[in-house]
Design brief:
The structure holds 2 protein chains of 2 kinds. By secondary structure, chain A is mainly alpha-helical. Chain A has 13 helices and 5 strands. Chain B is elongated, with a radius of gyration of 28 Å. Classes of the chains: A mainly alpha, B alpha+beta. The structure holds iron/sulfur cluster (4 copies).
């Protein structure tokens, strides 16, 4: 493993963003500064900007409701933003569950916990489909009864009740039963956002992939390590992570001692003469 | 691994996943079915659609809760017996103030609280019923009148109906009577009932109201509609009274006093 002295810039920025979003929502209920009202399902910023979770709105539509304008407008704004910056930017930069599962993953590796259940990383799409079918079949937004993402987020501003049990369950599941179990395998919210960002502009690129010395640090740190292999190792693939499962967290950028990674666009090409490659 | 075993592995994996997801779905469906029953003391804000529609329309944002000036709404938390994340109030602990401009409905981005409701007097959150005639102070012959006085629709939603106090023989009982055509179910009467446990309570509409058979016709209404008696010639009314009682026009039953 190659040691790296510099600060993990993107990690710090990301934690900063997660805290900032929380602070914005908490400023109202805790200090009376109502910049934002609501929660991630729907929020109104400065009494002006509506933002709706398109996933919950989709379930409402399937349940047979025709929403009013603000909910639709908010969903359109959110959908366009994430379609541009990458759907799972929500996961890495916004979602309140991420710090919980990141902590579980960190602790798991520190404690050397290995093994556990085997579930396909595609299971989340199965669960996503299940939540949509359930909305259609029950006429109710069924997933919202148990969704740990909104239970945690809403709980912080409107009172937790027993919501902490769901959060603890996710934490213990990731810690004991499955590495990156929730966010990496099961969460239908993340699955939805990955589909939303399928063609996103902002992507992690590998402009200096030729410099890779196979230390595997990026694979170790990435919550979705499957997304890295092809663009890093396969010369026939353009040097950019196009998999929608990449959360654009930037951990690979931080960790790579050879500066292989950088934020870029999905149109990233190999440098014309492979400039980074040392002449033979 | 050759192609056929890997294909078989793939099919087994896919089947396993489908089963897992199916089981999760059935479990969640069953849980949701019992978790979404609304207890009779919990009421939705004004304009809420029917409970079934509401649970598909409300996206659990809490904007209505935030914009309610008297802050009587809560957003249900897991562990409370109301669908998680949906708004409700309990009349006895905080009744709806029937705000004229309906800030809760205005705040609702989805229309789970129906934006077509613009007159709060048309809201039907529930229906007040004077459920306990044995403890209500007015029924005991006192002039409490509190539920009547606090009603935002006094003299329309709730009236005081005088009747003779048989116990004292010389007083009047002012019976609070709620009228379903005007009561919004705001719960102010229940909230302010002076008893330890309120004698007047708001009930969900289906618990509070009876319903006539759809084929029932009220003779006097039909008569009004037809502009005259439907039976011709009109039959003269005959009294079948127990001994010692007679009917006095305009007053009702009276005891026969020996002349
Ligand atoms: S996968 Fe789900 S819980 Fe995890 S960060 Fe993404 S939305 Fe949040
Ligand atoms: S009418 Fe007023 S008091 Fe009643 S729920 Fe709405 S905002 Fe609250
Ligand atoms: S404002 Fe509307 S969508 Fe939001 S919680 Fe209230 S009823 Fe539900
Ligand atoms: S609930 Fe009570 S206070 Fe409210 S309108 Fe009905 S009778 Fe009046």
């Amino acid at each position: 493993m190659s040691a790296r002295a510099s600060v993990p810039k993107w990690l710090l920025l990301r934690r900063g963003a997660q805290l900032a979003f929380l602070a914005l929502f908490l400023a109202g209920p805790w200090f009376g500064f109502w910049i934002v009202k609501g929660n991630y399902n729907y929020s109104l910023t400065l009494d002006l900007l509506p933002l709706t979770d398109p996933y919950v709105l989709l379930q409402s539509l399937l349940a047979g409701h025709r929403p009013e304008r603000n909910a639709l407008l908010g969903a359109a704004i959110v959908a366009v933003c994430y379609a541009l910056v990458g759907g799972r930017v929500f996961c890495a930069w916004v979602c309140p569950v991420n710090p919980v599962t990141d902590l579980a993953a960190w602790l798991r590796s520190r404690l050397g916990i290995k093994g556990g259940a085997h579930v396909s990383r595609h299971a989340r799409f199965g669960l996503l489909a299940m939540t949509l079918v359930l909305a259609l079949a029950t006429g109710s937004i069924a997933w919202e009864f148990v969704n740990p993402v909104s239970l945690l987020h809403r709980g912080l501003f409107f009172g937790f009740g027993l919501a902490w049990t769901a959060v603890l369950a996710v934490f213990l599941f990731d810690l004991v039963f499955m590495n990156r179990g929730w966010c990496g395998h099961l969460c239908p919210v993340g699955a939805f956002y990955s589909l939303l960002g399928h063609r996103s502009l902002l992507r992690v690129a590998l402009p200096r992939r030729a410099a890779c010395d196979d230390c595997n640090d990026c694979f170790a740190v990435c919550p979705e390590p499957l997304v890295i292999r092809a663009p890093l190792k396969d010369a026939g693939v353009r040097p950019v992570i196009l998999s929608p499962q990449c959360t654009n967290c930037g951990r690979c950028i931080d960790v790579c001692a050879k500066d292989v990674f950088a934020f870029g666009t999905r149109f990233q090409h190999s440098p014309p003469l492979d400039a980074c490659q040392a002449p033979k | 691994m050759n192609a056929s075993t890997s294909r078989r592995q793939f099919i087994v994996d896919a089947a396993r996943m489908a089963c897992g997801v199916g089981m999760a779905g059935l479990g969640l469906g069953a849980y949701v079915k019992q978790a979404q029953a609304l207890p009779p003391v919990a009421f939705r804000p004004p304009g809420a659609r029917s409970e079934q529609d509401f649970l598909g329309a409300c996206i659990r944002c809490g904007l209505c809760v935030r914009d309610c000036p008297p802050q009587i709404l809560g957003l249900a938390q897991p562990g409370q017996p109301v669908a998680t994340g949906t708004p409700y109030f309990v009349a006895r602990s905080g009744a709806c103030e029937m705000c004229e401009n309906l800030p809760c409905i205005k705040a609702c981005p989805t229309g789970a609280l129906d934006h077509r409701l613009t007159d709060v007097a048309q809201a039907r959150m529930g229906l007040a019923v004077l459920v306990d005639h044995e403890t209500c102070l007015n029924f005991l012959g006192l002039r409490c009148d509190v539920c009547y006085r606090v009603c935002p629709l006094i003299d329309k939603a709730i009236t005081l109906e005088p009747r003779h106090n048989e116990r004292t023989g010389r007083h009047t009982i002012f019976e609070p009577v709620v009228h379903a055509d005007a009561c919004t179910g705001c719960g102010k009467c229940e909230a302010s009932c002076v008893l330890e446990v309120a004698a007047i309570k708001v009930l969900p509409m289906p618990l509070a109201k009876g319903e006539l058979g759809s084929h029932y016709r009220l003779g006097w209404k039909e008569k009004e509609k037809a502009g005259g008696s439907l039976v011709a010639p009109e039959i003269e009314h005959r009294y079948q009274l127990p001994e010692g009682l007679r009917y006095e026009a305009g007053k009702g039953l009276a005891t026969e006093t020996p002349q």
